[in-house]
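Appendix C reproduces, verbatim, an entry submitted by the partner laboratory led by Prof. M.T., so that reviewers can inspect both the input and the predicted structure.
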Amino acid sequence: QINQRFKDFKISYKLKSVELKPTDSEINASGMYTIRLLDKHGVNVSLLDVGFGISQVLPIITQSLVSQGETIIIEQPELHLHPKLQTELGDLFIESALVRSNTLIVETHSEHLLLRIMKRMRQTYEETLPNDKSKVTPDDVAVLYVDDNDDCTVVRHMELNRHGEFVKSWPEGFFDEELDELFF
């Protein structure tokens, strides 16, 4: 499953588990495994030798795919990831929540991740969702915007409609930054 997700994310490595042999370490390694990455030529590559984004996203993918009925808390999963991979995380999180019955609490600054979830919501409503994607509705997603406000922190629930749009305007300084960069 993880290798399939790597392929979906267009990550050009494959994950392989290798059983440690007693000669590999001073401790008894019987039944212990290590993970190796294989590049497109089948050469073993250390996690230390690939981009930081790969080592960052591997535990997120793994936890999202193997957990069942769990609460998963993830902080800034978008760090060191290309925007395309950030959008793919949106699909992964939807699948983890709806197919594997996980509750995900994700702290993010990524518009890309949120926009993918909103797009899938709209596609669900319009019945244009790709067949291999899970249907997602406003009841499945809660967007909370945390804002420092002088002496206190304010948490706002940003309700989404079935079209994948915010019911009320987004607070200043998030989605409008992209528009400012593009047009002003």
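The CA atoms of residues 69 and 124 lie 23 Å apart. Additional entries are available on request from the coordinating office.
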